[in-house]
Amino acid sequence: MFTERRIERHLLPYYLKVFNRFTGLPIGYLGNVSEDGLMLISDLPLLVGPDFELQLKVPGRAGALHVINLTASCLWCHEDENPGHYDSGFMLLQAPREYDELVSSLRNYFSFHPLSASA
User: Fold this and answer.
1) Which of 40, 53, 62, 114 has its CA 20 to 30 A from that of 94?
2) Which stretches make up the PilZ domain (predicted)?
């Protein structure tokens, strides 16, 4: 039985906060991402219909933060299965190349890559 952690634990909500680009205030956390949109998890319901100016502050090497600014339209919002939390779906209207890199990095990080068998 293993008694020591072999893989470093990451507190993803700490790293994946979403902010209002203009006020700098936190809106919620990334729930999932794709090339065309994202799901946000928040403490309050978000208004469906308007465009939001969002900002991600993504940690990089040596502790540097990379800022990714997005414009997205909220398409839906409903209460999460966890009481007091809400899920909101956004369609991206404007996103920089860094967002695509984030999506690719997260997909790679959370994907299962089986080792190839060697004879």
Assistant:
1) 62
2) 5-98
